[in-house]
Amino acid sequence: MAKILPFRAVRPTRDKVGLVASRSYQSYTQPELEARLDYNPFSFLHVINPGYRYQQDIKGVERYALVRNRYLEFKEDGIFMQDDQPCFYIYKIVNRNGDTFCGIVAGASAEDYKNDVIKKHEDTIAYREEIFKDYLKTVGFNAEPVLLTYPDNAEITKIITEVEKERAEFEFTTHFRDTHYMWLLNSTKHIETIIGIFQDIGTIYIADGHHRSASSNLLAEQLKSENEAHTGNEAYNNFMVYLIPETELKIYEFNRLVKDLNGFSKERFLIKLDAMFRIENRGAQLYKPNKKHHFSMYLDGEFYSLYLRKGNYKINSSLDALDTQILYKTILEPIIGISDLRNDKRISYSHGQNDLVTIKQKIDSGEFAVGFGLVPITVSELKAIADEGLTMPPKSTYIEPKLRSGVTIYEF
Q1: Neighbours of 127 (CB within 10 A)
Q2: What are phi and psi of 268, to 5 degrees?
Q3: What are the phi and psi torsion angles at 297 (to 5°)?
Q4: Which single residue of 200, 282, 343, 410 could bond 287 by disulfide (Cβ 3.0 to 4.6 Å)?
Q5: What CA–CA distance (Å, rounded) separates 58 from 48?
Q6: Which of the 8 DSSP states describes residue 248?
Q7: Which top-level group of life is the source organism from (predicted)?
Q8: How far is Cα 373 from Cα 371, in angstroms, rounded to an integer?
Q9: Helix, strand, coil proportions of the chain in percent (round to 5)?
Q10: Which of 276, 268, 265, 273 is nearest to 309 (CA)?
Q11: CB-side neighbour CA atoms (13 Å) of 107
Q12: DSSP output for 148-185
């Protein structure tokens, strides 16, 4: 039984939302970041990068306190306001490719995360969970929702369609020509209906935001233990999520780039691969795989297709059947010698929004020796991994939509 609830979002005023909304801090190049901070005083980047005011790179607890200060200043200056009553927020994105994503921004239960009602498919790193938990505790808010997915539901779709007939509270277009819309859903009847539907759904899945979910759960546990008057109704028991139906989730592959062949010559490397793959040389023709267990490889100016010899590879779980795991267990670990996919500096990743030309250019330049292309993982595979309590290899999925920070804010 999944518990979701409406909340009173802190959000930009209608006239400033397009100026406030930002991508994640790490996604900007340094020149992009400086330009936005120099010329846009309303950007949420000023909140999450408070040291820029002092031309200082401030880290740790001192930075957290300054983030809190900048956030309060945005509220005091009227850049942010808070809704008077709890709402769900219908949020739609139409990207430059014509893809549409529409879902519900809501609060979700940290208890549901703890009890595996909200299921995960990725491992999290303990120290990163602790760091972000401490950050959340100091700043007192979350500004970027965790992306969750649920089975398509006709009744929810009907409610959303009805709400979309009204004028959107927010409508703005980003630098990348993605258009964002947001409506307030404050009808008691609709809110109760949606809450009831999710109670019946039972299980929902994290698509993106595993560390944010884990940190929110840690924060809830800590604040609960520190609060002698804990009731279970406090805001810290929940965290902000964006719920979209499974059919609207878009999953791209993460291709692999490797710096060397672990001492093998090209010829010996191909012979090693032959034990597990049927290999076809495609020459200079750009080749992208289109089936599960098929891979593309770019090596020494030529593309190859690799077809798994299924008789030589045992599949005992949903993890074994995952292409990122197959590539790891048949090539990356035994032949190239990469065992730690998260930390080994010899491997890098390029998500599927970048085309094969990107991989070709990086290898032709000498930056990498070989590249591998995969087909995207499906929602069914993602759910199967989560249902079996397993975790995917790092960088198995690049998932859209990517939400902007600072559009809806959940205060703890």
Answers
A1: 8
A2: -65, -35
A3: -140, 135
A4: 282
A5: 11
A6: G
A7: Bacteria
A8: 7
A9: 35, 25, 40
A10: 276
A11: 25
A12: EEE---HHHHHHHHHHTTSPPSEEEE-TTS-EEEEEEE
Structure tokens given for 271:
């012979």
Q: Where are the beta strands (DSSP E) in 110-152?
A: 118-119, 141-142, 146-150
Tell me the two tokens of residue 53: 């005011």
Torsion of CA 380, 385, 388, 391, to 10 degrees: -170
User: 158: which 2 tokens?
Assistant: 């009907």
Is the bond leading into 334 cis (omega within 30 degrees of zero)?
Answer: no
Q: Are strands 179-185 and 170-173 parallel, antiparallel or unpaired?
A: antiparallel
107 in helix, strand or coil?
Answer: strand
The DSSP call for residue 237 is G
* pLDDT above 80 for 54: no
Burial pattern 7-42, b for ≥16 Cβ within 10 A else e, equals: bebbbbeeebbbbbbbbeeeebeeeebeebbeeeeb
Pairing of strands 204-208, 118-119: parallel
Between the CA of residue 37 and those of 143, 172, 217, 308, 329, what are the distances in Å? 18, 19, 32, 49, 45
Nearest to 119 by CA among 399, 381, 389: 389
Cα 92 from chain centre: 17
User: Sorting pLDDT into bands at 50, 70 and 90, what band is 24?
Assistant: confident
Q: Which residues 6+ apart lie within 8 Å of 263 measured at CB?
A: none
